[in-house]
Amino acid sequence: MAYFEWGDDLTVGNEFLDSDHQKLISLVNQLHTATQQGEGRTVVGEILDELLDYTKDHFQREESHMQRISYADYAAHKSEHVSLVNEVMALKAQFDAGNISVAAKVSQLLREWLSVHIMKTDKAFAVRLNAAT
Ligand code: FE2
Ligand code: FE2
To answer: Among 24, 37, 109, 124, which residue carries the largest CB count within 10 Å?
Structure first.
């Protein structure tokens, strides 16, 4: 069983959102596996970079769809994204400063945060997005 399992509870019923979320979850699992196997700074750092980039891109995509449909909860939803990115960037700064073990915290944080955010915040948005398109 994967560290972070994608399943029905995380399905929001929108193709673009679901496929982005599956990719995110797969990257979280890759990061977890790398840290569990004691991979070095280069390997873990590359996955961390990819995960951070993909997270930002995903949030950007969601936010542009929100703007396109004049989504009422845009500001609140976006502020959740901003605070998560800030948290991950703070951990990434520690990693870059030499604290490699912090990478395990990133996979843990993302697993917990994404579970809640996808099930509540993204699901609510998916309903509006599907209704508008
Ligand atoms: Fe999302
Ligand atoms: Fe979101």
So the answer is: 24
